[in-house]
Write a structure and sequence with these properties.
This protein has 103 residues and is an alpha+beta fold. The protein has 3 helices and 4 strands, in the order βαββααβ.
């Protein structure tokens, strides 16, 4: 069964837009380096409810199954990206789920 890997970023105070754009480009490059990433999408919060708790960016990766997700986490390209990213984050939230489709 497919796995959706949801990641939310809350950047540290003072992290500039150009650095944020660079960090996002780094994330967007991962599907070209890690073949188990079957789909990748992202966006910036546009909610009017103000319930984001400071999280501003959401990323969703789809894996064919749990084995794909499990191969992604220790993959060297992913680990290299995480080392660059983490110093710029105030908070990080990660949630994986098996999607249920409502018909």
């Amino acid at each position: 069964m497919a796995i959706k890997h949801v990641v939310l970023f809350k950047f540290k105070e003072g992290v500039g837009e150009s650095l944020i754009a660079e960090l996002i480009e780094g994330y967007k490059a991962l599907p070209g380096k890690i073949d188990v990433m079957k789909a990748f999408e992202w966006g910036k919060d546009v909610s009017v409810e103000a319930l984001h708790d400071g999280f501003t960016h959401c990323f969703i990766t789809t894996f064919a199954d749990a084995a794909g997700r499990d191969a992604y986490i220790p993959h060297q390209a992913h680990q290299d990206y995480v080392k660059v990213l983490l110093p710029h984050l105030d908070k990080l939230l990660v949630l994986d789920f098996e999607p249920e489709v409502v018909k």
